[in-house]
Structures are given as structure tokens and as C-alpha cells.
Amino acid sequence: MPRTLLRQPLFRLLAINLAAGICLAALLLGGLLWVNPGRLRELIFADSSPGTALGLLMFGFVITFGSAAMGSAIMAMGADLRGGDRGGRRTPIGLIPGAEPIPVRAERSMRPSRRQSERRF
């Protein structure tokens, strides 16, 4: 069964990005312990079970950065990184058969008049 899962492109994409998130979480935890802000490292290792605190910190970082890496990979799937897909282009109204512009009249302007804006200041 593990071989069949690794052949699935979506699962492989998610697994690779989760591994990247785990690596980033480990680097962040190591950097946090190295910098020792507010004597955090001393506080953790002075406890009778520092593994629990380190495990909880690592778990939180893995959830955060693993999810961020997997989510960004999923959102980037539709983008063509070669520059071919420009995205956001809409078909002009003239190219849609039978489409005609509809005139719309606004009842009032949403922008304040110049006199109203001068009164505020």
C-alpha cells in the first residue's frame, strides 16, 4: 500500500511539502533554543521532563509550518510558473455572442461631496 500512495501525485506533493515544513519547524526550534529569548532554553531544560516541552513546541511548529507549506503548494498548482498563464483575464463583452452592455444609473454617489469632506477636518 505505501508504494501505491507514493505513486499518487497529489499525495507525493503533500508529503514533500510536509517534509519541508517539518525541516523548517526543526530549524526554528533549534534557532529558538540557540538564541534563548527570555531564558527559554534554561527554563525548558531545568524542568524534570524537558522532552514534553520540546515535543509540544515541535508539534505546534510542525502543524503550523507543515500546513503552510502544503497549503501554498496546493494554491500554486493552478499557476503556470513559466509565465504562460496570465490569470485574471476576462473575455471582453464584444467577444461573447449576444452580449450587450446594460446602462445603469446610480441613484446617488457614494463619495462625499467636497463640502462634506471639508467640514470633517
Helix content: 55-70%
Largest sheet: none
Mean pLDDT: 83
Q: What percent of residues are in strands?
A: under 5%
Low-confidence stretches: none
Helix/strand-derived category reads: mainly alpha
**First-last Cα distance:** 70 Å
Please tell me how large the radius of gyration is: 27 Å
Work out the helix count: 5
The succession of helices and strands, N to C, reads: HHHHH
Spatial shape: elongated
Number of beta strands: 0
Q: What can you see in these coordinates?
A:
There is one protein chain. The protein is elongated. The protein has helices spanning about 1-5, 10-35, 40-45, 50-75, 115-120. Helix 2 crosses helix 4 (about 50-75). The mean pLDDT is about 85. The protein has about 120 residues and is mainly α.
